[in-house]
Amino acid sequence: MGADTDDLDRALLFFDVPDDDLAALRYADEQARLDASLAAWVAGTAAELRAAMGEPSPPPSLAPRPATDPDVAAYLPVLALAAALPDTLAWSRSRGIPADVEAASMRDVGRMLRRNRQWEGEPGLGDELARWLTRHLTGAIHEIGRLQYERVRLGTWTGTQLAAAGLPVGPADLALSLHIPQTGTPLSPGPVDESFAAARRFFRRRFPDASLTHVVCDSWLLDPQLAGYLAADSNLVSFQRRFTLIPPTTDDADSSIRKFVFADTTSPSDALPQRTTLERAVVRHLQQGGAWQVRTGWLDLRRA
Ligand SMILES: CC(C)(COP(=O)(O)OP(=O)(O)OC[C@H]1O[C@@H](n2cnc3c(N)ncnc32)[C@H](O)[C@@H]1OP(=O)(O)O)[C@@H](O)C(=O)NCCC(=O)NCCS
User: Fold this and answer.
1) Is 283 in the pocket of ligand 1 (CB under 6 A)?
2) How far apart are CA 45 and CA 106, in angstroms?
3) Residue 145 forms beta bridges with which residues?
């Protein structure tokens, strides 16, 4: 079943859905009530999220959306997230997760609806951003102050590299994957320190059974080449210094940095804006034949 109207209203508030999306979302909800295949997709997706409640990532994958009006299909994931929300909130209360952490975590849905318009030029949620948000509804990710923490299994590459670095962990172990939400505020060291301190307390109290002491971060932000362009005391370079890097894999990282800096992966580099030091650095590096990297780093939350 999808959310009833009151639950949907409540979810839209929790998710901080932008005003621009409200009418189209309500229309999609009406259509999902009239069409059995849409209702089944929403109910089935919500049921999968409930079944994975409290599990670390990866969350369940989303079934392909039913063929329908694209304006309706675009919002079906939000309806499924809304239908699962009461169960997420109940689970969260049962773990003693503070209401402000839960509320902050859920506001990422609205942020992703804004990002979808920015990145894809489309309303609603594409598959990439819809999949990202399933983590929030299964309770795998929490926003604590400035940063988001996702309970994950390390997996083969990172687990093996951390073990090789002498850490007492391996591929099957749990860790916290760190994310930096685009909040419109800088990544100043103070809020990062505060977030780490709060996360230490949060995971020790709320997930005492799991030994969540290591933080890993996969990001364009950790590309050490950035330090060649940005000031040593910039927020980005200061943030990098907190991490120990593991060897890179061979992702197409130009597209990652271009998404997060320009929301544009296709324009020729000389057409990209050049307003900030970072924008100028990204373009200069590409024009000099360089390539950007997504790098993985780790830190020990007990010493961060
Ligand atoms: C992470 C983030 C908050 C850092 O911003 P910050 O705290 O301003 O970083 P710094 O102070 O070190 O910035 C150094 C320079 O780069 C610029 N800059 C930083 N991030 C930028 C961005 N995303 N786009 C354009 N310019 C950016 C700053 O304006 C500054 O340039 P200036 O001195 O000419 O003004 C910002 O990049 C951001 O919001 N990113 C989106 C979220 C993201 O990328 N998350 C990681 C996903 S893997």
Assistant:
1) no
2) 17
3) none
